[in-house]
Every structure is written in structure tokens, then in C-alpha cells.
């Protein structure tokens, strides 16, 4: 396994982009983004996508390659990114995967649980049953079809209950039987690097970044996107708060303080997700990138 995927994770605004560029330059390799908010070309300021200058310093993939109008799932990303990695590993022993979206990192490093395609009619029937008979009816149906999942799912989460039911009905098998299948072995080794700081530092960096986004034109970007605010891609921190301001619900100062608050919460959730992964080697955001390179080389050559 002389092919090595270097994965860089951590909370938002911690400095992952600049670190990944330093590593890409050192290993003379390319960067694959696993930041699901940066896939969309209409959203650059509010997602803190790499700048044109940063994109020049190292070749990036999956940055602003889709439109907010596209349906682009984590399953689509897994397939596309694995194809890209296969191509990149033909010309280099290293590729860097960077992002704050834990699910997207997992899709590449571990693989996703794969479910059957569900017929639209099944979905419609379940929606009708929910509208006429309520959630209790669906809970009972789930208990009959998949008692194991019924035990552990949040039964008040309508979306999850319906999702499990549609898979049971489509496949004739319990939803739980599709979960936690042995994950696919990847044809490359994986070295995971986490970047972090004390909570105060992370929060301070987030607050500064939001101020910077505003200076860079976040309000105008959100104004241009306002007609599309119902799209899934735009139901995200940084945009939905400004839409509330543009709709006259909040004044601008309050909207900006909500962006900061919601981004801090997002960073906390990111850290909770990544802290569960014991394969990640953590460094502080001040760490000299050369010592991170030494660590990567040591692990890779062991």
C-alpha cells in the first residue's frame, strides 16, 4: 500500500485550507475537498471556499463544481470522489482529503451503508398514511417490520421512521439488516490529521471569519441567492439567517450574531463527530506544518 490518503479534519475556521495547501506543495500532490457546502458554485463567500489565490497554489477537486439547482447526494459524492482518487493515485503516491463534513469524510474512508432505490409510489403512500393516521400508525408498522430498528430509532423523528419503512417495504427486508455492513477495504492507506484549539480560540476565529465574510460581500451574495432560498443547498448557516433579515424578520446585527452563534454550534458538533474517531492524530492549529509532515512520513513508512 504505497498510496496514502492524508485526511485533514477539524472544526470550521481552524485553518484546514492553509495546512492542506502547505502539505500539497510539500508532497507535490492534489487536494480533494469533502466540504459539502463548498461544492456549489453560487456559494463562495458564505462557505469560506478557497480563494482564487489559494486555488492557484494547489490543484483542488470538488470545489464549486455543482450548481445549487443540482441534486447531489453523499452517495453521488462517494462514487465521484473514489473515481477521482483512483485517477490521482496513478500519478502520485499522496492525495489530500480535506473537510469538516464528517459524513463525507466517512463516505471516502469507510464507505456508506448502501440502501435499495425506493419507488416514489411507496414514499407517497407512506406520506398519505402519515397525513391521515399520524405517526403512531407508522411506529406500529415499523415495529411489525423491523423490531430491532424500532427499539433504537427516535420514534418522534418522522423522517427517520418513514425512511426505515420505505426501505423495509421496497426490499422486503428489515431496514436494520442494511446497517453497519462490513465496510469496503480501500485500495490506499489512510492517515488522519485533526486540527484543533481551545474552545475560546475556535469561537474567536469563527467570529472574526464572519466579520471578514461580511466585508467580502456576504450580504450581496445572499441577496442574489434569496430567490432560491427554498433549495436544500441554501438551508445552511450563513445564508438562512440573512434570508430572515431580507424577509424583514430580523435586523442585520441580530442576523449576524445568529450566524456567529449557529457557526459556533456547528463547530461543536463537528468536534463531537471527529472526537469519536480514534484514528485521528490531533495537532493544535499553531503546530508547524513540518512536524505534521514528519508524522505523516513516519506513519506511512512504518
Question: What is the gist of this entry?
Answer:
The chain has 302 residues and is an alpha/beta fold.
Any idea what the shape is?
Answer: globular
Low-confidence stretches: none
Let me know the average pLDDT.
94
CATH class of the largest domain: Alpha Beta
Helix and strand element order: EHEHEHEHHHHHEHHHHEH
Side-by-side strand order of the widest sheet: 3-2-4-1-5-6
The count of β-strands is 6
Q: CATH architecture of the largest domain, please?
A: 3-Layer(aba) Sandwich
What tags apply to this protein structure?
13 helices, Histone, subunit A, 2 domains, single chain, 53% helix, ATP-binding, alpha/beta, 302 residues, Rossmann fold, tRNA processing
Fold and architecture overview:
It is a single chain. This protein has helices spanning 16-27, 52-57, 74-91, 102-109, 120-133, 135-145, 147-152, 158-171, 199-216, 218-225, 240-246, 252-275, 289-301, and strands spanning 4-9, 31-33, 60-61, 94-98, 189-196, 280-284. Strand 2 (31-33), helix 2 and strand 3 (60-61) form a beta-alpha-beta unit. It has 2 domains: 4-112 and 183-301, Rossmann fold (3-Layer(aba) Sandwich), CATH 3.40.50; 120-178, Histone, subunit A (Orthogonal Bundle), CATH 1.10.20. The longest helix has 24 residues, at 252-275. It starts with a strand and ends with a helix. Helix 5 packs across helix 8, helix 6 (135-145) packs across helix 8 (158-171) and helix 11 (240-246) packs antiparallel against helix 12. A 6-stranded parallel beta sheet has the order 3-2-4-1-5-6, with helices on both faces. It is α/β, with parallel strands linked by helices and 302 residues long. The mean pLDDT is 94.
